[in-house]
Specification:
Blueprint: H1 2-9, H2 19-38, H3 47-55, H4 65-77, H5 81-104, H6 107-125, H7 130-147, H8 151-162, H9 173-179, H10 184-192
Length: 193
Amino acid sequence: MIYYIFIVIFPFFSFVKNKNIKIYALMLSFLFLVSFCSLRWQTGTDWLPYYDDFMSPGNRHDFEIGYVLYVKLIRYLTDNYTLFLFTTSIIPIALIFWGCLKTQKNISLTILSVCVFYSYYYLGSFFGAERRIIAIGLSFFALIQYKSNKKVQSLILILCASTFHISSLVTLSVFLINKLSLNLYKILLVLGA
């Protein structure tokens, strides 16, 4: 039920005229998403392996080096898995919110973007996928940097994301697509084939 409350109520804030109310709504949605993701327990696709890995750092799985170092850092600071989940959820969600705000400048569009993110991606992909969500946040922000002509920062973010989840290297294709001067029609044609 709580899943639906957010998606039913939150979009209405995009129609509010008062900018301060929109900002508060955006901050509340950020807190909701971070809390929702970090306070879950035994939920998600790979919850148990990540939990075991965090609680028994000597029993390493074959995780990427960035994630291993990240776990070591958090584990050095605390052995509380909920705090680990909190930190792990705040990073990508903050990057996604920041990226939406940077590209849209319009708070109403940012609110609607967050709703789309929540309904199409957040619920299915952010629970029990600790490495992947950090990589997604970094890759998303890398694309924002690329769009802002900050290609070196974009490349660094993509490489950093790949140290959490190697699949992030697919994001490098943005450099190739731009070099080939492919238009949207050609890209969709290739993806649809």
